[in-house]
Each structure stands twice: as C-alpha cells, then as structure tokens.
Design brief:
The complex is a heterodimer of chains A (114) and B (116).
Chain A (H helix, E strand, L loop, with lengths): L2 E5 L2 E5 L4 E8 L6 E6 L5 E7 L5 E3 L5 E5 L4 E6 L8 E8 L7 E3 L3 E6 L1
Parallel strand pairs in A: 2-11
Antiparallel strand pairs in A: 1-3, 3-8, 4-5, 4-9, 6-7, 7-8, 9-10, 9-11
Chain B lengths: L3 E4 L2 E4 L5 E7 L6 E7 L5 E8 L5 E2 L8 E7 L2 E6 L8 E8 L7 E3 L3 E5 L1
Parallel strand pairs in B: 2-11
Antiparallel strand pairs in B: 1-3, 3-8, 4-5, 4-9, 5-6, 7-8, 9-10, 9-11
Classes of the chains: A mainly beta (114), B mainly beta (116).
C-alpha cells in the first residue's frame, strides 16, 4: 500500500532563506509523486509532479523537487523564500502509480518571516 | 488551464437537514471525480471516487447512505450530505481528472460546510 510521510508539521524560514520541505513515500509500484500548495480556505494548486521521467522536477514559483528512489524521498526545495510562499504544502502519491486517486501526507505549514 | 468549480463556497445548515455540493469541470470532460474531506489543520482524506454514469466507490469508513454522490454528466458531480450533524462540519474538496490531458487531476476551491 502507498503512503506518504511529511517530516515536520511546521517549518519556519526567513525571507530569502532556503526552503526545504521533506517528503518520504512508500509504494509497491513505481510511484507518481506530487507537491501541492494550499492557501487558507482554498483548494489545492499543483506545484510539481514526478512521473518517472527526469528525477529533478521543476515546478511553479521557483520550487523544485528531486526524486531519490534509494532514499524513497521527494523533498521540495526553493532557493530563496518569499513572504508569499507562506502556506500549507502537501506531498501526495498516486495509488496506482499513475494519475489516479491520491494519498496525501499530513501537510507542512510553511511560515516565512521578515 | 483546466478549471474546477465548486458551489457553494460556504454553506451553513441546521442539524438534520441535507445539503448538496456541486463540483463542475468548466473547460474539460471528467469521467472521474474525487471527493475529499479536510478537517481543520489536517490533511485531505479521500471519501469516494465518482465515475460518470456509474455508482461511486466509497473509501472504507465512509457511509454511502449519508454521503450521496451523483456523477450524472461528464462535467458535474454532486455530493449530498444527508441528515447533517455538527460532526459533518468540514471543508469538502473535489477534484477532476481531465481524460484528454494525461489524466491530470485538478482541484476545486473547496466548500466550507457548517452544521449548527
């Protein structure tokens, strides 16, 4: 069965600092992995996705993530945090290894302070 | 880009009544839609998979008679919360798969349900 673990329910960084949000997955099939961002009282917006092509995936708003099979990880990074990056971030894995129903991690709330 | 809408965005209903939430794919056809529930400061929990023209598939622990799902067309799925109770208060989010775009999943903006 697929599962996702996000380490750190809250992450706080200074504006301009590196953002690192951790995600580890478990999957019995080659996974499709996703990072979504959610602003208060809104739905989810796709940041980026890994679909078995390049292991380094670039997304919107300067975010990127690297798929590391040996570590079963898909950590999200951004070189320089912006105040507008403050939001809830969810890592997700596709149940069937394709674009199917998703299993979400618990989420990480990112705070950016001046 | 693909857009999914939900209506209403917020609804308050009295305990014991039913409320319907609509999920629409505005510019694509969606043979499959998903319904999620999100409690405050928690993650999304999949409730059911809605397939156009067939019965929904519910996740374990979700009461199908309480959460009625109808996917009558390729652009519309509805979730009806029947005999609502305060514990049904939550944020409900739908998503839709664009069958013509690599089967990518798009999320609606969510519906905040408050049962008094």
């Amino acid at each position: 069965a697929q599962s996702v673990t996000q380490l750190g329910s809250h992450v706080s960084v200074s504006e301009g600092a590196l953002v690192l949000l951790r995600c580890n997955y478990s999957s019995s099939v080659p996974p499709y992995l996703f990072w979504y961002v959610q602003y208060p009282n809104q739905g989810l917006q796709l940041l980026l996705k890994y679909t078995s092509a390049a292991t380094l995936v670039k997304g919107i708003n300067g975010f990127e993530a690297e798929f590391k099979k040996s570590e079963t990880s898909f950590h999200l990074t951004k070189p320089s945090a912006h105040m507008s990056d403050a939001a809830e971030y969810f890592c997700a894995v596709s149940v069937s290894g394709g674009y199917n129903k998703l299993i979400f991690g618990a989420g990480t709330r990112l705070a950016v302070h001046p | 880009g693909a857009v999914v809408s939900q209506h209403p965005s917020r609804v308050i209903c009295k305990s014991g009544t039913s409320v319907k939430i609509e999920c629409r794919s505005l510019d694509f056809q969606a043979t499959t839609m998903f319904w999620y529930r999100q409690f405050p400061k928690q993650s999304l929990m999949l409730m059911a998979t809605s397939n156009e023209g067939s019965k929904a598939t519910y996740e374990q622990g979700v009461e199908k008679d309480k959460f009625l799902i109808n996917h009558a067309s390729l652009t519309l799925s509805t979730l009806t919360v029947t005999s609502a109770h305060p514990e049904d208060s939550s944020f409900y989010i739908c998503s839709a798969i664009d069958r013509d775009s690599s089967y990518e999943q798009y999320f609606g903006p969510g519906t905040r349900l408050t049962v008094t």
